[in-house]
Amino acid sequence: MEKLVDNEMRFVPEKCHAAVIPLRKSFKMFLELPGIFYKIVNYVDSLKKERYVVSNIMQAKTWLDKYADKYRDIVLPFYFLFLENSGMGLMHDFLEGTLAYVMHAITKFYIFKKKYFTLMYLNSKVAELKIDCSGFNKPPQISLQRLQENCVLKMSASESLTFTYLYSVMVGDKILDKDDEHWLMYRKLRKILNILMSPRIIESDATYLEKLIDKHHKLYIKLVGTLTAKFHNLVHYPRLLLKYGPPVNYWEMRNEANNKRVKAHTTAPSGSVN
């Protein structure tokens, strides 16, 4: 680090220590460690000051050397540089990730273990849905093989959103025990969804969301098993809500909607040459 020695700024070697947290353990952290994130961000901000330009170059080389030895770990100075100005990936993290995993687990439990309804009954209810609202796509039929062998439903973000919203309408009357923990997990998931899809956010929403995510993730581990990275990403959402506002105002859904149109031109060309 830089130190003033004999009225001159010199680089003086200093010992530093790093704490490596295995990814499997980090996925079990349901709450952000208070103050740690901002300490790192403030440190990164301090490095942007003009007086530290030379030392930044020196530190960059040092971190690259350290990262070469720990290429399978997350090195915080690199990791948070990318997160500092990033928002939430609500579509990929939550709609295509968390919703698809949780709804698969709940549906599989009620069909095969509790036998509250059959897959044929659920698919008939899906077929009866009439979706007139823009932004909501009708969910596809769920295959028996997919439900038995996989751990996630094969649906797009919009289809997963519709399926989760209307799940209680389709099969809610078949759930005999409303205090069942799987149904409790679904209700908490719906509350999380309502907050994240809200066009208006207040500070108490972020506080409530933090508690909901904590309870929901604990239930999922108890009833289903290991969390994936997309579950863990939700831990940061309460803070990001307060920083950026409602995610529906800047999420990637509208931009991703154009992918289908682009893919149609790239994967099915009309020409017969090359």
Classify the secondary structure makeup into a structural class.
mainly alpha
Q: What spatial form do the alpha-carbon principal axes imply?
A: elongated
| Major sheet strand order | 1-2
Number of β-strand runs: 2
Please tally the helical runs, counting DSSP H or I stretches of 4 or more residues.
14
Helix-residue proportion: 55-70%
| Mean pLDDT metric | 77
Q: Count the domains.
A: 2
Query: How many whole angstroms does the radius of gyration measure?
Result: 24 Å
Task: Give the assembly state of these chains.
Answer: single chain
Query: Which series of helices and strands comes N to C?
Result: EEHHHHHHHHHHHHHH
Termini separation: 59 Å
Binned strand content: under 5%
Instruction: Give the biggest sheet.
Output: 2 strands, antiparallel
Unreliable stretches, pLDDT < 50, 5 or more residues?
A: 74-85
